[in-house]
Amino acid sequence: MAGVFSKQRFGFASETTIEELKNFSKNPNTVRSTSFWLNVWETWCKQKNIVNKIEENEPENLNKLLETFYAEVKNKNGDDYEPDSLRVMIAALDRHLSEKGYKFSIIRDREFHSSKQVLEGKARQLRQSGMGKRPNKARSLTEEEEEVLWEAEKFGSKTPEALISSMWWLLTQFFGLRGRQEHHAMNMEDFQLCKNDEGMEFVQFTEGPTKTRQGGLQSKNRDFQPRMFSVGGERCPVALFKQFVERRPLNMRRSGPFYLSVKTNRRLDDNIWFKTQPMGVNTISNMMKTTVAGTSLEESHKKFTNHSARKTTVSKLKKANVERSDIVKVTGHRSVQSLDDYDEADEEEQRRLSSAISKRNYENPRAEKKRKAVSDITTTVAPLAPVNTNVPVPHTLAGPSMTATKENQFPPSLSGFQAQNFSVNPTMMRSQEQTMMNTFNNCQVSFIIGRSKRAPEISKRQPSSCKRRAFIIEDDSD
Q1: Could you read off the pLDDT of 425-454 as tens digits, one per residue?
Q2: Domain identity same for 277 and 407
Q3: Residues forming a β-bridge with 378
Q4: Residue 371 CB contacts under 8 Å (≥ 6 apart), including other chains
Q5: Which DSSP category does 189 fall into?
Q6: Minimal CA–CA distance to 222: which of 240, 234, 204?
Q7: Is 177 part of a structural domain of the chain?
Q8: Within its chain, how far is the Cα of 126 from the centroid?
Q9: Are 179 and 299 in the same domain?
Q10: Do 69 and 103 belong to one domain?
Q11: Which residues contact 433 (CB under 8 A, 6 or more apart)?
Q12: Is 118 in the same domain as 149?
């Protein structure tokens, strides 16, 4: 019979379903922020016996209420919010009013100019009192700090905990993932183990919805898809990935949640380390905290969170002199300006800048270790003839200063030079003189001591004497 279907083509959407779809179109973090600050406002109104909802107030009355609210707002502990939190607060309340059809903006419209002044004044007052400096923000790991985790077997493949931490650490960096949100939603279907034309293995990752690319009608995938290539050795990321797959249950090696719970009561000969149960959200959210636990990093003054892995990625790429436009291809940021929050100088760079200000030569810590590993040997300077004499000079790495002994003093034949014990420090010389100096290693040095083309002019100005200067090279390091 025409027009009759055994199954209804269109379903039925209730009001609840429609509201759920509306909320699903919004960023979950934005929804949580709006809900949180609206709750703070409503809690304050309840304490003040204010019945009307925020959107039910006329602009003039709401402006007065906001003046008092901004001046009095505190967190649950009775402390002031950080200045940046106040900026988020006013944006959240303005967003709620806009969603409710309020005709004015408490941020932009002049009807709320005075309340905005109160909030601005409070933010400045808090910053002057020392707040807003973000002392507890997440820090990146140095090369030495990461090595601590490998040496402590917090990373690696010897235990299921170390293997899963390695996967989290490596995938975060190679594919520019955020430390929590994007790991929660990962599945085995998102990964492919491939080979290029040269036969080199690599892991390909297909990204799902993220903070900056949430899908929807205008969904746009990354223009650049990072790959994790095999490099060989115990720490090879591809080899660790393959071990992780082999330790999963057989029916979940190609599908299912990526992060699985660890089997605690397994036999020693059991090659399956993980359950079929997904790992908890909180466990993934505290992955960095769990990893550094029990190591020297736990007692460090630095704060390490899941975001530290992403910051470490940016730090590594910056040290390798990778362009900012190429860094965002890995991290997935929309623009290079998004990297501004990651532009904290690492410790080595800070030491270099500090040394430059102090007018002292900066030495790389690794070069310093190599320099100390070489035994200090006193450099012997052979006697020099006054003019054009080739002199063999055995030159080795010396200590911070070089002292001439009786055996290696310059002879009195050098005009104007008095033989005596001396110590030369190149940092005390004039910059023009330092540029004339060269460094030598395992070679013969020819000292050409004679008059230059400008010598006659000098002798006219100073006919009484013509002194020659000799410089002792302190160090042959870069």
Answers
A1: 444 444 444 444 445 455 565 656 555 444
A2: no
A3: none
A4: 363, 397, 475, 477
A5: G
A6: 204
A7: yes
A8: 27
A9: yes
A10: yes
A11: 469, 471
A12: no
Q: In the chain, helix, strand, coil percent, each to 5?
A: 45, 5, 50
Q: Give a yes or no: residue 266 inside a domain.
A: yes
Residue 170: which CATH number? 1.10.443.10
Residue 195 falls within a domain, yes or no? yes
Q: With 0-12 CB in 10 A as exposed, 13-18 as middle and 19+ as buried, what is 186?
A: buried
Residues 82 and 163 in one domain: no
Q: Which of 329, 344, 359 is the last residue of a domain?
A: 344
Q: Which residue type occupies 382?
A: A
Burial of 32 (0-12, 13-18, 19+ CB in 10 A): exposed
Q: How far apart are CA 476 and CA 377, in angstroms?
A: 13
- Point out which residues pair with 191 in neighbouring strands: 205
- Residue 153, C-beta contacts closer than 8 angstroms, at least 6 positions apart: 159, 162
Whether the CA torsion 275, 278, 282, 286 is positive or negative: it is positive
The number of domains in the chain is: 3
Do 421 and 403 contact (CB within 8 A), yes or no? Answer: yes
Closest alpha carbon to 82 in 123, 28, 36: 123
Write the pLDDT tens digit of every residue in 35-78.
Answer: 999 999 999 999 999 999 999 999 999 999 999 999 999 999 99
Domain hosting 87: range is 15-128
DSSP string, 259-291: SEEE-SS--TT----EEEEEPPHHHHHTHHHHH
Kindly state whether residues 114 and 174 are assigned to the same domain: no
Please name the amino acid found at residue 106. I
Residues ≥6 apart with Cβ < 8 Å to 453? none
Rounded distance, CA 195 to CA 402, Å? 57
Residue 157 shares a structural domain with residue 124: no
Same domain, 192 and 323: yes
The residues, any chain, with a CB within 8 Å of residue 328's CB and separated by 6 or more, are 334, 335, 336, 338, 339
pLDDT 10s digits, 335-364 = 676 676 665 656 667 777 777 888 665 555
- Is residue 446 one of the residues assigned to a domain? yes
Strand partners, 262: 274
What is the chain's Cα-based Rg? Answer: 34
Residue 192 forms beta bridges with which residues?
A: 204
Using N-to-C axis directions, what is the helix angle for 28-47 and 59-72, rounded to 10°? 90
- Provide CB contacts within 8 A for 339, sequence distance 6+: 314, 324, 327, 328, 331, 333
Q: SS in 3 state form for 222-262?
A: CCCCCEEECCCCCCCHHHHHHHHHHCCCHHHCCCCECCEEE
